[in-house]
Design brief:
The chain is α+β, with helices and mostly antiparallel strands. The chain contains eight helices and seven strands, in the order αβααααββαββαββα. The strands form two sheets. Strands 1, 4, 5, 6 and 7 form a five-stranded antiparallel beta sheet that branches. Strands 2-3 form a two-stranded antiparallel ribbon. The longest helix is centred in the middle third of the chain and has 23 residues.
Length: 195
């Protein structure tokens, strides 16, 4: 139905949002993308989360990761330390990144559920590597976006990519009101459908 068409992922996400929406309640899904996340992520953050993880099997690889990611190089008396980004082709990088994202996702999920207390379905935060999704009311998801932006930049050194981030909502006029209140007049692309 939405496979192989432009905007297909958004179509599927919106159908899922509508299918699980409670009657009479506003629903909004915000899909956030981290800009150049693997290359911009702080190596110190990656190391911290793998070496302090509660799961012993994760901590066990911490020594290997530390050797690879904390290495300093000395060339003719000058010391170099790579502070950002994973190593190209490192098969561990996706799991290291997911571990570093975990505290942000847990914090956002709790915040979303605390703000949208009257709702019982389809509220919270999830991530798949550098893609983050927030679900709740429009106001709550925008607040979650602000929290994500601050937390990801402070902890991991990565920024959100506004051009790849999307908002899907059942009540477009309600969402426009919230957006106008927060950001002033905005241009709206709207749903263009398969092209």
């Amino acid at each position: 139905m939405a496979v192989g068409v432009q905007g297909g992922v958004q179509v599927l996400a919106m159908l899922a949002l509508l299918a699980h929406e409670q009657e009479g309640q506003e629903g909004c899904m915000l899909a956030l993308d981290a800009s150049n996340a693997y290359n911009a992520c702080s190596r110190d953050a990656l190391l911290e989360h793998v070496t302090t993880h509660q799961d012993g099997s994760i901590r066990a690889i911490g020594q290997l990761v530390y050797v690879l990611y904390a290495a300093e190089f000395d060339v003719e008396g000058m010391t170099f330390k790579i502070a950002e980004g994973g190593m190209q082709g490192d098969p561990l990088l996706p799991i290291l990144f997911a571990l570093a994202m975990q505290p942000t996702v847990f914090k956002l999920d709790k915040g979303m559920k605390d703000r949208d207390t009257g709702r019982t379905k389809n509220v919270g935060a999830q991530s798949f590597l550098d893609d983050l999704s927030l679900r709740g009311t429009t106001k709550s998801t925008l607040k979650g976006m602000e929290e994500a932006e601050e937390d990801l930049e402070r902890r991991l050194g990565i920024r959100l990519n506004a051009k790849k981030s999307k908002m899907l909502t059942k009540n477009t006029e309600g969402a426009r009101e919230v957006l106008r209140e927060k950001y002033g007049e905005l241009e709206s692309e709207g749903y263009k459908g398969p092209q």
